[in-house]
Amino acid sequence: MGKVETVLKAEIARLSRRETRRLTQKHVEELRRLRQRVATLEHEVRSLKTARAEEQIKAKIRTTTETVATGRALSARLSPGLIQALRRRLTITQAELAKLVGVSTVAVGMWESGSTHPRRETKARIVALRSLGRREVRRLLADPK
């Protein structure tokens, strides 16, 4: 009689596993789909946060440049040493400073050597860079524009 009992037990276990699998299959698929959707939404949120931070930096530069252009840019002293010190503080190269300010690398080199001085508009942008930090500058440089 032990054999019939074992066979019945095995069959009941097999049928219950099969039924459980059938009942949970749609939930498992739904869970997988929802996890994938959450991952996409997290990615979208991350990219939106990054874009928002970049826009805030751009707005900060714009407003700073506008306010600086009217007053402080005319009176600001930009000696070659101050331009070099700004670059060192922001840990950027001459080419990167040129990209941020909108001039050529040669122009930045000439400012730092003291042969020429930045124009009024460029001077306002350089003064505006003083209020930015390294991270903000890195984000600006990473922006493909």
Describe the structure.
- The chain is an all-alpha fold and 145 residues long.
- The chain has one domain: 434 Repressor (Amino-terminal Domain) (Orthogonal Bundle), CATH 1.10.260.40.
- Helices cover 83% and strands 0% of the residues.
- Helix 1 (2-70) packs across helix 6 and helix 4 crosses helix 5 (105-113).
- The termini are far apart.
- The model has no long low-confidence stretch (mean pLDDT 86).
Topology:
Blueprint: H1 2-70, H2 72-75, H3 80-90, H4 94-101, H5 105-113, H6 120-129, H7 134-142
Brief synopsis:
This protein is mainly α and 145 residues long. It has helices spanning 2-70, 72-75, 80-90, 94-101, 105-113, 120-129, 134-142. Helix 1 crosses helix 6 and helix 4 (94-101) packs across helix 5.
Q: Assess the beta-strand content as a share of residues.
A: under 5%
Overall CATH class: Mainly Alpha
Low-confidence segments, given as residue ranges, are none
Order of helices and strands: HHHHHHH
Work out the helix count.
7
Radius of gyration: 31 Å
Principal-axes shape call: rod-shaped
CATH superfamily: lambda repressor-like DNA-binding domains
N- and C-termini, Cα separation: 82 Å
* Total DSSP E strands: 0
Structural class: mainly alpha
- CATH architecture, by name, is Orthogonal Bundle
Keywords summarizing the entry:
7 helices, 434 Repressor (Amino-terminal Domain), 145 residues, mainly alpha, 83% helix, rod-shaped, single chain
